[in-house]
Amino acid sequence: MTNRELTEMREAQWLSPHACLSTASRGRERAEEPCQTRTAFQRDRDRILHSKGFRRLQGKTQVYIAPEGDHFTTRLTHTLAVAQIARTLARALRLNEDLTEAIALGHDLGHTPFGHIGERSLNQLMPEGFRHNEQSKRVVERLEAGGNGLNLTWEVRNGILCHSGPEQPATLEGACVRRADRIAYLNHDLDDALRSKVLRDFDIPADCLRILGRTHSERINTMILDIIQESQDRDTLQMSPLVQSATDGLREFMFEKVYRNSWRAAEELRCDYVMKALFGYYCEHPGELPEDYLMIVYQEGSQRGVCDFLSGMTDRYAIRLFQHLFVPSGYPVDFTLDSE
Questions:
Q1: pTM of the model
Q2: Cross-strand pairs, 28
Q3: Structural domain contains residue 99
Q4: How many other C-beta atoms can be found within 10 angstroms of the C-beta atom of residue 303?
């Protein structure tokens, strides 16, 4: 018996009847020989972890544009926080932790530079719109591995697609990631807002503090423990009405005071301008795209190829490329002659 088969046997013995077993996967788009050591979901996790898209997350905005401080959240640290919270939920509920982790690590691979600002820009530019969860699925299915995709299991791809948006995940493991995503961003974005003095402690609604906790760790702990308590031996994930109401109230507060507030309006305009300028330039000059994206232009049109190119950029790469294309660099100056 191989290591993989031993793990699959342990899953069948230990996991909840509501969990998704590795042996019950709907499979991959392209059939593959099973790994001797890893289950299908463990293999998916490793493929995402070693992908180019995952490495680029360290240079992508969460809320603050190309932050200079060492402690602001990036898209990578957000992803790791989501994975940790989702795995905690899955372990406590006896769900498939490997499937949960794979979905969590891949859920934001399609996020644009400049966070949701870049997402809004591409949504305006693309005739069919743009949503980062759909782009994350496209990254693992189409863009990675030189255009061949990572050939992940159906369950992982479904969880990535459904971590946000109206469609609910098909597995409870996907639901863990959907819940963990909100828990993570509400709490670390609140931390960043306090660190940057956009908010003060006394700004936070009193009901949220009383019910959820006064510190970062208390609030996360309250949300996680409440989901575990309310979801044991059930086929859905849920919060108690009291904690759900407080969490929704915190989310509304964050949208009003942080996500949609005028404190970063000037930065949003600049980021939107950069995205639209780059999009227009490469639609007019598609031949200057990297080779992988040229293939997409030939197969799916220039807008699609340009969109894929832009959405994969880090913040700093997009800024440097804009400067290279549109900001004059000047001519070399002979300071000896100039000073005479």
A1: 0.93
A2: 153
A3: yes
A4: 18
156, two tokens: 């992982």
Spatial distance between the Cα atoms of 267 and 263, rounded to a whole number of angstroms: 9
By residue range, what is the domain housing residue 244? Answer: 37-263
Q: Domain for residue 77, yes or no?
A: yes
Cα-Cα-Cα-Cα dihedral of 199, 202, 207, 208, to 10°?
A: 40
Token digits of residue 230: 């309310």
Backbone φ and ψ for 21, nearest 5 degrees, come out as -75, 150
Instruction: Specify the amino acid at residue 77.
Output: T
Specify the number of domains making up the chain.
Answer: 1
For residue 223, what are the CA distances in angstroms to 22, 30, 33, 218, 229?
28, 39, 40, 9, 10
Span 27-67, pLDDT tens digits = 999 999 999 999 999 999 999 999 999 999 998 876 656 55
CA atoms within 13 A on the CB side of 334: 3
232-278 confidence digits (pLDDT tens): 999 999 999 999 999 999 999 998 888 776 667 788 899 999 999 99
